[in-house]
Specification:
Non-ribosomal Peptide Synthetase Peptidyl Carrier Protein, Chain A; 148 residues; 50s Ribosomal Protein L19e, Chain O, domain 1; two-stranded antiparallel sheet; rod-shaped; mainly alpha
Length: 148
């Protein structure tokens, strides 16, 4: 049975698209006889014609990806766009490197493990980017026997 007219009227009555109109197959004969909007309204009230729910886009994948990102995953080289400094600026990288080194030097000086003169010398070397990290700084001190 062709119920395209009824479907169009039902869509208009229920204020939705034709794809969202559902017609009960058991009431097919009754629906085919409905030719006025009042007939369609009566069938809607009876439940012979119903409005399907809106099909949205699932957020499941997005939520999963967000959970992964919070764990620190999905941040590899394939994800990054732009220069190497776009994720972390050169200044920020430098600060993350120099602050622990200066803290280590202060600690060694306050404990009396290095003299103020050696402290100043190493401080300036660190400022000049002579050391990769605090471990490199410690090995430099031990190799040159700069500690007391």
């Amino acid at each position: 049975m062709k119920l395209s007219t009824q479907k169009r009227l039902a869509a208009d009555v229920m204020k939705c698209g034709e794809t969202r109109v559902w017609m009960d197959p058991q009431f097919e004969d009754e629906i085919s006889l409905a030719i006025t909007r009042d007939d369609i309204r009566r069938l809607v009230d009876e439940g012979a014609i119903q409005k399907k729910p809106i099909r949205g886009v699932s957020r499941g994948r997005a939520r999963h990806n967000l959970r992964q990102k919070r764990k620190g995953q999905r941040v590899g080289s394939g994800t990054k766009k732009g220069k190497s400094t776009s994720k972390l600026s050169g200044k920020d990288r430098w600060m993350m490197k120099i602050r622990p080194m200066r803290k280590e030097l202060r600690k060694l000086r306050s404990e009396g493990k290095i003299s103020p003169r050696v402290y100043r010398e190493l401080y300036l070397k660190a400022k000049g980017n002579a050391f990769r990290n605090t471990a490199h700084l410690r090995t430099y001190i031990s190799e040159r026997r700069l500690s007391k």
